[in-house]
Amino acid sequence: MTSDPEADFTPYLPQKAAVVGCGVIGAAWASRMLLSGVDVSVSDPSPNAEEILTEVLGNAVDAWDDLGLPTNAQGTYTICRSVAEAVAGAEFIQESAPERPDVKKAVLAEIETAAPADAIIGSSTSGIKPTVMQEDMANPERLVVGHPYNPVYLLPVVEVVGGDLTTIGNIRRAQGMYAAFGMRPIHCRVEIDAFIGDRLLEAVWREALWMVNDGVATTQEIDDVMTHGFGLRWAQMGLFETYRVAGGVGGFRHFMEQFGPTLDWPYSKLMDTPDFTPELVDTLVEQSDAQSGMHSIRELERIRDKNLVGFLKVLEENEWSAGKVIADQR
Amino acid sequence: MTSDPEADFTPYLPQKAAVVGCGVIGAAWASRMLLSGVDVSVSDPSPNAEEILTEVLGNAVDAWDDLGLPTNAQGTYTICRSVAEAVAGAEFIQESAPERPDVKKAVLAEIETAAPADAIIGSSTSGIKPTVMQEDMANPERLVVGHPYNPVYLLPVVEVVGGDLTTIGNIRRAQGMYAAFGMRPIHCRVEIDAFIGDRLLEAVWREALWMVNDGVATTQEIDDVMTHGFGLRWAQMGLFETYRVAGGVGGFRHFMEQFGPTLDWPYSKLMDTPDFTPELVDTLVEQSDAQSGMHSIRELERIRDKNLVGFLKVLEENEWSAGKVIADQR
Lengths: 330, 330
Prior knowledge:
2 copies of one chain form a homodimer. Helix content of chain A is 49%, strand content 12%.
């Protein structure tokens, strides 16, 4: 089931895809595509691109093995020296360049010099509107935002957003390709900055930063409240479904009657953002080091993946939520 | 490990506890205590209190059985006709009355007429400051907030907050009792409205309501982005640890350099709250019905518990986060 009752897309696996920008996100995109059997050309200005790709792909293969998904029909990857070389002949291109509108626009211009005119271009941007990114494009009708959540090879959601010049047909084609990569493409029908998920994440991020800034709680304490409390809930039921359950047999209306008014209480401090003084940055870094510094990033990634694999297995066994997407993939 | 490096409490299981207010939260508190082997006296003005308690206790027993926690050494419960009868002789009292300061204060006054003067009183309030609740108390030094997350019998976190008149010794005693119920008591050292978790939840709730209000996304779409994306992350790593991993080998400082500035972008709309017009309430109710109306609340509770049991087993096997708390309980 898609979240959009109007959706009418057909899963379609492109023969050849390109990944432009191969940092952590781009490499994870490439890994998901490769594991889906697609040949992927990769370009990135950094000399470390192949190292990042092989490391992330190694994690992805381990994770898919643990989940019992097939890993023996991988596509092949090619590291390219230029964007033009990578995108030539690609049916699908995922752009994961740095998060600045001018950089994104320059990369898109480079892509269009060599990509087939009807290739779908998905952007990994966390918040820039596709209307902004597509304004100088030769074929803007094929640009969509395809915003993933890392680790892209495990978390199935991708938010698909069109700009003013994107056609609905191309949005459906993009959804079909993302679905063929084993993802759940949620079409955000209204174009806003940061789409759906990052608006929520930014709200939490701001509020959490205030608490650290004001000395109310440490990063460890905030994270513990999440992982030992509402984070466990949200891995399997979202905010609205959780609150529906909280409303008891009276359902959502009862919940609203009971808790709606507290929204006007002075509970949060979301009016502006704390200044990123060197002191605040130092505090955040120190607290994060104290919390997690005993693990390397690679260790944390492996722990994260192991946990997520376990959760997804549980969800699949229970035929629930993200687990259904995994089941559909088998 | 507790989150508070200064913490020095000793787990201590009270012989007799009282639960004042037996709705969904109070009943889940009673269930956790009963399963921990404590005798619990319960009072609630509603004639349905015993029905709610037995239903919730049934869910709790199933969940603990699934988790492999012992359920054969339960305490006994007594339904009392008055608050005074319930709290007489109790070493620990958990108050879960409706979320209004005047109601809380009246209930606390009733508790103090009959409770031992040194009984610890924990309040389940989601956001009212203990300093406000304790101002008219005879023995205010023993009042703490003990804010849980539902289902209280499964989610281990409890935020412990003292008011101006609460002694640190009584905060430690309360932490020790919550720990003996199998929980992880996080001491919020700075008293603010809504403590830690509900500040974050309220930020998400507000932003999500704006999206529904503005027609950007439905409750289903918002929930799907959570359960298929960042919710899975937060069941095992919180915001800060997740972002640390996102920063890659550059760590948290690199993450801040990369994404800190986007906080000033116009991503969220958290300046005030939408008006709760009948139209908005209707929209929310309709969307929630469409999303989840095919399941009864009881079904949703069972599904939720099954998922959470699975997650907790995974976390325990991986010796991580909330799973360590379960391991400590065995």
